[in-house]
Amino acid sequence: MQTIRKVIIPVAGWGTRSLPASKNIPKEMLPIYNKPVIQYVVEEAIKSKISDVIFVTNRDKSVIEDHFDYNLQLEGVLERAGKLDKLQTVREVAEMVNIMSVRQKKQLGLGHAVLCARALINNEPFAIMVGDDLMFGGTPGVQQLIDVAMTENMPVIGVMEVPRDKVNRYGIVAGEEISPGVYRITDMVEKPAVADAPSRLAIVGRYVLTPDIFDYLEKVTPGVGGEIQLTDALQAMAKERGMIAVKMSGIRFDAGDWADYLSANIYFGLQDEGLRYDLLDRLKQFVQFQ
């Protein structure tokens, strides 16, 4: 398999799970500690040696692209104030990666969002990272998939075990374990009923795919709400040519889930030596107050 240079990050959705906070601010730009959600996702891609980020966006989300551009007015203010450490920080964000974008003019599902980026992939294997799924600890999340994809020369999707009572929130895979934590996929079901789920291995927003996925996406029949589901195309692809699932290691936060979003803020706050003990004291106060 060729080196993975590009990642598609779909960010065109409405973010209704994050309302009212996301009413006028994209959910991907909501802050976790001192960075917006999307910056953590892009940083994971960079740590995985990906050089080109393709945002699938809409007309109301240009602020996401702007975040990774220079802000000359702000830089001038910081330079005149002598705040050179902060000046360096904002410049580093603008210089961290090559950003491209394409618009999803109608929000017709994750599969449709990926299909919108076809022309920018140029017939290369590529990664997909969901813009509100955060993963930390050890080897970067998408790098774990790239390593297996390069070894097996096959498309790979990331999975994690979820509680049985939550399988109906995810795409669920079943497979034959061919090495520790690596599965040859035999079945894939989108949001199954708890009683019908083939396993507890849930798809968690990280993929490394070959460009023929676009051919499968073009054949997908729109489902409820007219949406084109990526899982449907993956299922067809897995049956015809095979696909691998990798049980990912590390900590995952779903930034669209309020418990996960708040937990992520606490997690990163605790990493800050200057903030850790004050934060712990406040958390103890809250527990006692309850």
Structural features, described:
The protein has eleven helices and 13 strands. The protein has helices at 37-47, 62-67, 72-80, 84-95, 110-116, 118-121, 141-152, 213-219, 230-241, 258-271, 273-289; strands at residues 6-10, 31-32, 35-36, 52-57, 98-103, 126-129, 133-136, 156-161, 171-179, 182-190, 201-209, 244-247, 251-254. Strands 8-11-9-10-12 form a five-stranded mixed β-barrel. A two-stranded antiparallel sheet has the order 2-3. The protein has a two-stranded antiparallel ribbon with strand order 7-13. Helix 3 (72-80) packs antiparallel against helix 4, helix 5 packs across helix 9 (230-241) and helix 8 (213-219) packs across helix 9. The mean pLDDT is 92.
Q: Please estimate the helix content.
A: 25-40%
Task: Compute the number of strand runs.
Answer: 13
- What is the helix/strand order? EEEHEHHHEHHEEHEEEEHHEEHH
Give the oligomeric state. single chain
CATH domain fold name of the largest domain: Spore Coat Polysaccharide Biosynthesis Protein SpsA, Chain A
Corresponding CATH architecture of the largest domain: Alpha-Beta Complex
Distance between the ends: 54 Å
Number of structural domains? 2
Identify the overall geometry: globular
Number of alpha- plus pi-helical segments:
11
Low-confidence stretches: none
Tell me, rounded to a whole number, the average pLDDT: 92
Write out the CATH superfamily name of the largest domain. Spore Coat Polysaccharide Biosynthesis Protein SpsA, Chain A
Query: How would a crystallographer describe the biggest sheet?
Result: 5 strands, mixed, barrel
| CATH class bucket of the largest domain | Alpha Beta
**Radius of gyration over all CA atoms, rounded:** 20 Å
Strand content: 15-25%
Strands ordered across the widest β-sheet: 8-11-9-10-12
